Amino acid sequence: MDFFSPDYWTQDFIIEVVGVITGLLCVALAARQNIWTFPVALVSVVLYIYVFYEAKLYADMGLQVMFAILNFYGWYMWLHKGNQRVERPVTQTTKRQWGYLAVLVPLFTVGLGYFLHTKTDADLAFWDAGTTAVSLGAQWLMSRKKLENWLVWIVVDAVYVPIYLYKELYPTAGLYFIYLGLAWWGYVDWKKSMKKGQELAARG
């Protein structure tokens, strides 16, 4: 089908494209530690609830709902450190936090994957559940401004690309391919910010 043909630009395709644009913008803002990442992300989330419902990727659809909740949580967390209304610094993920993820991500994957496989007409049920579980972990780490969230995103985005190509969600596959570069940029930028903060703290 001709990309420039009016028949190509269906409602579903337009919604997906706008979701791609807002998705790119929110990740770029997150990489720069810009608080506007959260309201922009909420727009993208709403659009992708529709996109993934139409694609029968129900875990990804549910993931967007969780993203909405975690975006409100992250919005608050970025603006508060403890009970103080000061910007939260970038820190590294603790062993305890990695432990939580190591237990909860597999359990969530198996439980949700089984439910989707047996109770719904979901496509790629266990892959959908697994990427959802890892994405939730990455978003939780981002909400707490943990440096390694970007490394987790790189791993899960690399899996998302072929899934979305298989589902013929080509703009979304392209989005997640670009996310790989943005996630690395975010990691490098946040690492510099963390080191700068540590140096300032050491100076007293």
From TrEMBL:
Family that this chain belongs to: Belongs to the nicotinamide ribonucleoside (NR) uptake permease (TC 4.B.1) family.
Name assigned to this protein: Nicotinamide riboside transporter PnuC
Membrane-traversing stretches: 13-31, 38-55, 61-78, 98-118, 173-190
Gene name for this UniProt entry: pnuC
Keyword Transmembrane: yes
Cellular localization per UniProt: Cell membrane
Function according to Swiss-Prot or TrEMBL: Required for nicotinamide riboside transport across the inner membrane.
Listed NCBIfam families: NMN_trans_PnuC
Coiled coil ranges: none
Superkingdom classification of source: Bacteria
Membrane-protein topology: Multi-pass membrane protein
Keywords, sorted A to Z: Cell membrane, Membrane, Transmembrane, Transmembrane helix, Transport
Keyword Membrane in record: yes
